[in-house]
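dumping this here before i forget
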Amino acid sequence: MQEEAEAQREAEITKPTDLQLLTEEQIALLSTSEEPETLEELTVQSEKRPHYTPILLRLTRRAVIFFTLLLLAFIGFYIAGCAQGFLDNDIILILLCISSVAILLLLFSVATLIECIIFLIAQRRIYFLFYAVPFTLTAALGAVATVVSRSINLLARGI
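structure:
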């Protein structure tokens, strides 16, 4: 009988409602969770934490992916336009779009790279270092595409 009453009390403790006030006994039972006492225990607990990517990093990463794909599409349009003999004004417009998207890609890649470094230092997670590598490559792609497209545009218009 006493075991049933104790089991019922534990069930009440594990499922408190929003409006229910907890007694001191219930608070004591809920607060007996294992807290790390040493640095080693804290390190082990932090390694058990689930992989979590901050929302700001997720948003900027998606922007970088979008601008990378858009830049590749415009480069494909430029190559197809040159092969099929588009008008000069159309080619210049495509080069202007390539320059604009490449500059945006460069800005977002650098911002995301800075975020990765900040989160690497703050959260001490190694996977932020692995996130930084592709953003470095996309920043280089954006810089190269900007310089090349602006150079071709200058040569097409005549220096």
